[in-house]
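Good morning,

Both structures are done.
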Amino acid sequence: MAVTQNLGWSQELKDVPIILDELQAIEGYLEPKKYDIQSLITTYIFSSDSHLFRSNVHHNDELGLSLSGFANIEDLVEFIRQNLSIEIVRENLNEFLTSSNHYVRNIGNSVASTYSNIDDFISDLQAIPYAEQPLYNRFFLSGVSKVLIETDWISYTKLINYLISVPSFHIITPRVMAEVSTKKEHFEFIIDKITQYSEVDFDYLGDQLAFQKLHQYITPELFEFVLDEMIRLNEDNIVLEALLFDSRQNKIIADKYIDKILELLPKALNSKVYYDYSHAIRFLLSHSEATRESIFIIVEEAIRDMDYLISLSSSPVGRVIEDMVEGSTRESLNFIYGNDLFTHVFNFREFREIFSKADEAEVLKWIGDDQEKIDFWFANSRFYKNNNEESIEWSDILHKLLSKSSDSQNHLSVIMAPLFEMYSCSGRPSRALSKRLFFFESLKEYLIEHDKVNLLPTVEHKKLEFQRFIEQAQQEEAEDLREQQGFEW
């Protein structure tokens, strides 16, 4: 199949014409003949390498393999469509249904014209050998249904009624319906099926409904009509999927759905990845005081429901708290400060990282001259960012809080305390600790820059203490090494 081009030998083989002629002869022999539709389908459509052929979506034809007799893969698919027969469909029906090649959609478009009666197509579907767990894909039936729903409503409903009645089609039928529906009567038909077939999962409708609205395949009014019906039917999974998708794309949630999304968000925190609901969280935090308070309540409930918390970074609650602190700093600090639920959460190192993302101007307003709040901030935040192992970027808020502090030396010591913590490292701990020594010089430079030279002795004292800490680690490593070698020195 495109032997000479695939191997990139054409130019080189011009010098050996006999070999080139032989390869081209083999290529011509192996490639299916243009009017052998069955071979074209088997070779190009059902092949896992169909994406390698030339396509009109490629900007450079050299990126794809050539197709003998066709300009590109789209040209070949159109040729198959124009020459499709009932016998070809029947012989390949199971393969069409299981194919993940999106071009079978286009071939599916021709089924409506290939079969003069939808009953004949349904009969062929019924004749497929039973499989307990068929790996059907929606592409082919979406292609069939797309044409039927636009040209022959009765045949479309007859096909769907058959598909949804068969357990082996339960997974893909709702997806097919959701993809091809664009009018009110289409969705009313879906709603009717939802009420009839409670055992069928229609959750895919939520994402697809919002997708259709985004790309203007349906109107916003139709989107709301369907969503309102889903709310009426208590189809919360569909509603949640639609609202989360809509909020991700449009960064907004309609006022009429605010209460509903707040009701469903706890479910999202427990069942979805953070990206799915992050935009909804951010929108609700900034929408109004009432929605912000509702998010705070959801966070409280989530913390209460946790049996244990391994880390904030791996917890959905941690990501929501980060959004709270970053987007609504003062309000979030008022919520967190003095809240007993957060007592154990402060023990996580990640909390320092979360607080470091707060709006510094808002933090200063929240603290004012309150010494207890200053204590709280020094204990739970971090004031620097490591750009690399020898460069630190210090936060502007540090020197301002040191100026407000009634115990600046102690607060400065609090900042340096984490340097003595060693959680894990590759190699010797003393070597990892030694790499932190530059921290002290960087801090001294920062203090000098902001006229805090009176605090330099505190840094120098802590540096000496840290160096003794490194020496102790080195002694322990040497002792461990001697024990491992079995020598008594």
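Second structure follows.
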Amino acid sequence: MRPLLLRLTSGRQALSPVPEVKIRSPSRSKVNTGVNIPFKEKGRAALPAELQSSFDDLWKTCSERGLFINPCGELESMLTYRGIPYTTDKRGWITKALLMLPGLEVNDKEYPWKFIKEIQEYLMSLED
């Protein structure tokens, strides 16, 4: 017997069978291709404008529970404003980022500092 799903239709509740969903884990090489790339590179900014507020709601809900979604996409997107372009070469990116780090000034309004501050504020709230 298939489980039933409660759904709302035109203000009324209705029961319908839960559709069967087959979940397949993509291979690592497929994760780095296709539709994922804009989200990895630009994060929230890659979403259509009408979905960005939904992302903000999700981010808020998750961050209140200690789960922080990088709004920039991947870590490698956090320093694009400083001239380090997004790349899938994590080793090359971290080398450039570490060389740049001593010259960066902490600014809570820019990434990565803004992201770090949000995590710090959450951790500080746990002490209250």
